[in-house]
Design goal:
The chain is an alpha/beta fold. It is built from 14 helices and 17 strands. It is 26% helix and 19% strand. Strand 9, helix 12 and strand 10 (366-370) form a beta-alpha-beta unit.
Length: 510
């Protein structure tokens, strides 16, 4: 996810087109994500080897801050280097968690289970972020346990750029990676599986990849090694997609590719850019994955400013939005660059302007920020902008009709009764929907007496709950001597929303 910017810039070699406008000031549905990176302890935990209680406290602080920021989706890195920040799988505990690879947290807890529960309490989705091919973060032997897969199956790996990496051309490697991911899909209540941009490694000068022998064995059907490498990645993506959606229809699969697929000078289908391309350098054909329907969302890392000739933000946003083939596009935004004093980034309004731009495009459904600490440290005032402006009101995650197009039934029997300093709402759980889904959660709306009941306006949302068991709510934000009307809707797991319940009116007097 983090790049060596000097290497990337060395590899880079130049009037906005906006879709039809829409009301984008406060969208009711928007993916508002943040990457919580654990590799090298970028975001969490603050350092390896902390007690379980301190780790939990730190993670709760992160989630609380992002709840205040209006974030509704956490992309939580659980496999930074063929290791695990979870307990119900086949890989060793991460040294970034406990200090020593293979050592469990003390006292024992499962960070992924904990993160899921706490995210859901806050109305946030939790997407499990995997690095599929990175096997070690460095070549320091003491950082790798004798039981690690690189030492158990050394023939599966090659060394490149100071790291050990899986050889994507080996069928047994693909089978192993799929099994690792499916451990998590089957054993945890995640909302999504997420890959970042690390497929084949970012090129190092004068360093060939060590996969020629594998190509000679498995690549006879391909004209060249580049096409074979792309097919290796394609095959993994396709199998992972089928496996996830067969096991749990509601688990989303998303990928965050490098910001340029191909340049128009390389391919007429490419973007108006002139830079490093994921297709040719990382063997990642992200456009194909969307076109084939293998992924549910694209999250391109467009960590570039407006007007940057090599990789202009606006041109790339437009390109990805036009090449999603009906799937979602969430723009990856490099908040960590927001304080750089270089063309484009020296304008501290760069990120806010980027949010305004993407919101004008009907084929873009949100943002993901890299990384958590860059937001919570309020670089260039980004956190302030989210809290006071862009994410001031809650938003539901965008629905995915290709995964589930059936809305739940509406709650019933909504009542409102006065309390000493508030209003207590209660309702009945809706009947099971036609596809067999029960309610997964609820959205509570409040209107002033005389206002039209319009649940498409985000500022009327009081609460988004991901708990079907919670069929009551106390509104303690009411004012004295006011008349209010409440309605409640039901959500299913994929955030399809029901019609609203009966309206409950109440006059508040205290």
């Amino acid at each position: 996810m983090i790049k060596n910017l000097l290497v990337i810039l060395a590899l880079l070699i130049t009037a906005p087109s906006i879709s039809k406008s829409q009301n984008t000031e406060h969208p009711k549905r928007e993916f508002r994500g943040v990457w919580v990176a654990t590799v090298a302890n970028i975001d969490w935990p603050s350092k390896p080897g902390l007690s379980a209680d301190i780790q939990k406290t730190e993670l709760l602080r992160i989630l609380d801050q992002h709840q205040k920021n209006g974030v509704n989706s956490i992309l939580f890195q659980i496999r930074p280097a063929t290791d695990a920040l979870y307990g119900k799988g086949r890989e060793l505990w991460s040294r970034f968690l406990t200090g020593n690879q293979g050592q469990a947290p003390v006292p024992y807890y499962d960070p992924l289970d904990f993160a899921i529960v706490e995210a859901h309490k806050r109305g946030m989705e939790l997407h499990a972020w995997f690095n599929p091919y990175r096997a070690t973060f460095n070549l320091i032997d003491a950082h790798t346990s004798a039981n690690h897969i690189t030492k158990q199956k050394p023939e599966w790996f090659f060394t490149y750029g100071g790291k050990k990496l899986f050889n994507p051309g080996l069928p047994e490697v693909r089978q192993y990676i799929v099994s690792v991911i499916m451990d998590v899909v089957k054993n945890y209540d995640i909302d999504g599986v997420h890959f970042d941009d690390y497929f084949y490694p970012y090129p190092e000068p004068n360093q060939p990849l060590g996969d020629n022998k594998t190509f000679y064995k498995y690549g006879t059907a391909f004209k060249n090694i580049d096409g074979w490498r792309r097919n290796n990645v394609d095959t993994l993506i396709h199998v992972v997609s089928d496996s996830i959606h067969t096991a749990k229809k509601y688990v989303k699969f998303g990928i965050s590719p490098f910001g340029i697929w191909r340049n128009k000078t390389q391919d007429p289908e490419g973007s108006e850019s002139n830079g490093f391309d994921g297709y040719g350098k990382l063997y990642a054909d992200a456009r194909k994955w969307a076109q084939k329907g293998w992924i549910d969302y694209l999250n391109p890392q467009i960590y570039f400013p407006f007007g940057y000739q090599v990789a202009p933000y606006d041109k790339l946003v437009d390109w990805w939005s036009n090449n999603a083939f009906g799937k979602h596009v969430y723009i990856g935004q490099g908040v960590y660059r927001a304080m750089e004093n270089r063309p484009g980034w020296s304008n501290r309004q760069q990120i806010p302007d980027q949010i305004r731009y993407l919101r004008k495009n009907r084929n873009v459904q949100g943002s993901v920020f890299f990384s958590s600490k860059s937001v919570t440290n309020n670089l260039a005032g980004v956190q302030d902008s989210l809290r006071t402006n862009f994410y001031r009101y809650p938003a539901l995650q965008p629905a995915m009709s290709w995964l589930d197009a059936v809305n739940p039934n509406a709650p019933s029997a909504l009542t409102a009764k006065p309390l000493a300093k508030g209003v207590e709402l209660s309702w009945k759980e809706p009947l099971v929907a036609s596809d067999g889904d029960k309610a997964y959660g609820y959205v509570i709306y409040r209107f002033n007496r005389g206002e039209k009941i319009d649940i498409e306006q985000a500022h009327h949302i009081l609460k988004i709950s991901f708990s079907s068991a919670e069929t009551s709510y106390i509104d303690n934000t009411v004012s004295a001597n006011r008349n209010y009307i409440y309605v409640v809707t039901a959500l299913d797991r994929l955030k399809n929303e029901s019609q609203y319940s009966n309206a409950a009116s109440i006059a508040v007097q205290f």
